[in-house]
Design a protein that fits this description.
By secondary structure, the protein is an alpha+beta fold. It has one domain: Jelly Rolls. Helices cover 21% and strands 21% of the residues. It contains five helices and eleven strands. Strands 1, 2, 3, 5, 8, 10 and 11 form a seven-stranded antiparallel β-sheet that branches. The protein has a four-stranded antiparallel β-sheet with strand order 4-9-6-7. The N and C termini lie far apart (35 Å). Bound molecules: 2-oxoglutaric acid. 2-oxoglutaric acid (AKG) binds next to strand 3, strand 9 and strand 10.
């Protein structure tokens, strides 16, 4: 259960770090799942997801990598169980302000040691705009993410600016000179913490220059009564209910 102070902080700043949402054992076990999945996938294909814009914006990002997988719940049941974690969905429900929480998609990111790719500053809104802007992300940290690991950075209060114009070249991003990554507020986290933020909150992250990988899962969620305004970024599993029910769902065959 989030406190009134935590919810007030979220509404004022557009983000909230919830400490210890997962136990140390849960985080360690999910970390192993992520690395095993990355090993299985990278034996067959290139899973680097570094934005072209990251290489253009950050001098150290010439040779960096970030290992990635979308919708990890289709690869391992441990992630399916995580999606309905009581503490996660309760916090999401309180932040969204609805008893009903619907999945949009999930993304695993592993920033490898010493050369983990950055993310230029952006809102998530241009990727999947919705009518009422209920969309939030929860980044779950499976190992510690101090600043030197390229922790997430945010611009507090930027969710109040509404949707901003983004450059779609090499990943949707904001002008580098106006929003340098290093000028945003660092959100260092510990294994087991969860960082919640609105899809309107400007965020990004720096290079992992530490000797350890940074391992996270981003879960994007919305109020099921908040429709997309553009038919885009659809994926398998989208629409799965994580908490409550979908008031707009129709009987089979009527859809
Ligand atoms: O994991 C990170 O460092 C940031 C991820 C991000 O900005 C995104 O996926 O939109």
């Amino acid at each position: 259960m989030l406190t009134r102070e935590q919810l007030d902080f979220y509404h004022e700043n557009g983000y909230l770090l919830v400490e210890g949402l997962l136990t140390g054992e849960e985080a360690a076990s999910l970390r192993r799942e992520c690395h095993a999945l990355a090993d299985r996938l990278s034996a067959q294909t290139n899973i680097d997801a570094t934005w072209g814009a990251a290489r253009a914006a950050v001098a150290e990002a010439k040779e960096t990598k970030i290992y990635h997988c979308h919708n990890v719940q289709f690869y391992s049941a441990a992630f399916t169980r995580l999606l309905v974690h009581e503490g996660l969905t309760e916090a999401a429900s309180q932040i969204i302000g609805s008893p009903n929480v619907q999945l949009h998609h999930t993304k695993m990111f592993i920033k490898p040691p010493e050369k983990g790719s950055p993310f230029p500053m952006h809102q998530d809104h241009p990727y999947f705009p919705h009518a009422r802007h209920s969309m939030i992300a929860a980044i779950l940290f499976f190992d510690d993410a101090p600043e030197e690991k390229g922790c997430v950075r945010v611009v507090p209060g930027s969710h109040k600016l509404g949707p901003l114009e983004h450059d779609p070249q090499g990943g949707w991003h904001l002008p580098f000179s106006q929003y340098p990554i290093e000028s945003a507020v660092a959100c260092p986290a510990k294994a087991g913490d969860a960082l919640f933020f609105s899809y309107l909150t400007i965020h990004g992250s720096g290079v992992n220059v530490s000797p350890e990988a940074r391992t996270t899962l981003l879960i994007q969620m919305r109020d099921p009564e908040d429709p997309p305004t553009v038919k885009t970024h659809e994926s398998r599993g989208q629409g799965m209910m994580l908490r409550g029910f979908d008031p707009l769902s129709l009987p089979r065959g009527v859809e």
